[in-house]
C-alpha cells in the first residue's frame, strides 16, 4: 500500500520534522508511559562518605522483552551496575549525579529506551534545618552551599512563607514526615523558627517514628532564637522528657557558622563559648517540679504528648482576651456583642490571621443577612429560622474553605472549629439589627472588630506568647485584674466624651 502526500500533508510533515530538529538534545518528545517504558529510581538522596548506598530500579515501568539496566556516574561516565540495583560507595564528599538507562525490546521488535537521573549528596557531617517562612530562603541556600564545600550536608526543610502563623507547626510536620530519610544519619537538628512551632513539629514527628526516636538519643537539637533563652528553655521540658536527645542547645543566629565549620558538636560548644555567643545547654535532668510551677509542668506534659503548641496557646490566651475585653467594656466603654462573641472573634483573628478572619466574619454576616431576607415571606418562628440561617452559612463556608485551599492556605482542625463557631455570630448581628436597627448593629460589629484587633495585637506579641507558655502561672493574675474591674464604679472613658457638655456646664456653675 502506498501513501501519497498532498500539499497540506507535506507542509505538516515538514513542520513536524523542523520542530523535532530544533528540540534541544535530550529533550523527551514522547511521554515515557506512552513509549511503553519509564525509568524510575528509588533510594536515599544522601549518604555518608565511606558508606554504601543502594539504588533500586524495580519500580520502573518496563514493557517488552530483554530489559536492560545501566547505571552510570554522570560526572565520570563510570558504569557502576548493569542490574536492577546499583551499589555505590562514595569516597569523597560532594554531589553525585547517577544516571539510569532502561532498555527493552517491544512486542513489535522496536527498541524502547528511557533515562532518568538522581542527585545524591555525599557528606562527612549531616545537619537538618527546620525553618519557618520568616527565614530568607536565599540565606539558607547560601549556608547550604558554603557548608557543602566543607563536606557538610545541610538539609533544609522550610515551611512556605504564605503559611499562617497558626499553621507553621502542622506544615513543618507534614514536610518532615513526607521525607522519611530526613533525620537518618544527622548529627544535629537545627530548629530555626519563631517560637517553638518547629520544636513541636519535630517532637510530634519523632514521636510517631520509632527509628527516629531511637536515633535522637545520639543527636543534638540546636534551637536558634532571638528571644530570651531562659524563657524558651522553660517550654522545652516536654521535648526533653519525651525524646531524651543527647543535648538541647538554645542559642543565637551567630552560632550557625560555627556549627557548620566545626568538626563535631563538642567543638561547636567550645567555639561558641570562646566567642561569647549566648547559649543555654539543657538535658532531661535540667528541670525539677515545684509547687509553684505545676501549671508549667502541665503545659509541658501536653506538649510532650503531641498536643499542638497553637492549641495550647489558644487555651492560655482565652482568659487574657476575656480580661482585655472586660477592660475595654468596663473602663473604656466600647459596645460589643457581650463577652463570649468578641472573644471568639479575637481567637478567629489569631488563628486565621486578621485579614482572613475579617473577610470570613463579614462573609458570614452577609450570608446570614441574605438568607434572612429571602425568608421574609415565610411565616417561621425565630428558632427554626435561626437554624436555617446557620445551616446556610455553614454550607457556604465550604466554598470559602475551598477557595482558601486553592490559594494555598492551610486549614487545621483548630481553624475549621473556629470557622464553625464564627458562623454562629450571624445570629447576634441579625438579632441586634432587628431590635435596635441598622446603625446600632453596624456600630456594635465595628467596635467588636476593633476590640478584636486590640486583643490580637497584644496576644500575638511573640514575647508575650513565649512568656505565657514558659510561665502559665501568670494567668492567675487575670483573676486579680477582673476583681479590680468588677469593683470599678467610675465613669467610662467614652462617657466623658458623650457628656462633655454636661461637664462643661457643671464647671461653669
Record keyword descriptors for this entry.
Immunoglobulin-like; flat; 509 residues; alpha/beta; Rossmann fold; 6-stranded mixed sheet; 3 domains; 5-stranded mixed sheet; 22 helices; 17% strand
| Silhouette | flat
Q: Over all CA atoms, what is the radius of gyration? A: 31 Å
Count, helices: 22
Low-confidence stretches: 1-33
Query: Roughly what is the average pLDDT, rounded to an integer?
Result: 80
Number of strands: 15
Distance between the termini: 118 Å
Please state the structural category.
alpha/beta
Largest sheet: 6 strands, mixed
| Strand content bin | 15-25%
Quick description:
The chain is an alpha/beta fold and 509 residues long.
Explain what you see.
The chain is an alpha/beta fold. It has three domains: 24-122, Immunoglobulin-like (Sandwich); 124-304, 3-Layer(aba) Sandwich (Rossmann fold), CATH 3.40.50; 309-496, no CATH class. The protein is built from 22 helices and 15 strands. It has helices at 7-22, 32-35, 137-149, 168-178, 197-207, 210-215, 229-234, 237-243, 256-261, 265-274, 294-304, 309-332, 340-352, 354-374, 382-406, 413-422, 425-436, 438-459, 462-470, 477-486, 493-498, 500-508, and strands at residues 37-38, 46-48, 53-56, 61-62, 65-73, 78-81, 85-88, 94-105, 111-123, 125-131, 152-158, 188-192, 220-224, 247-251, 279-282. Strands 11-10-12-13-14-15 form a six-stranded mixed β-sheet, sandwiched between helices. Strands 2-9-8-5-6 form a five-stranded mixed β-sheet, with no helix packed on it. A two-stranded antiparallel sheet has the order 1-4. α14 packs across α15. The termini are far apart. The model is unreliable at 1-33 (pLDDT under 50).
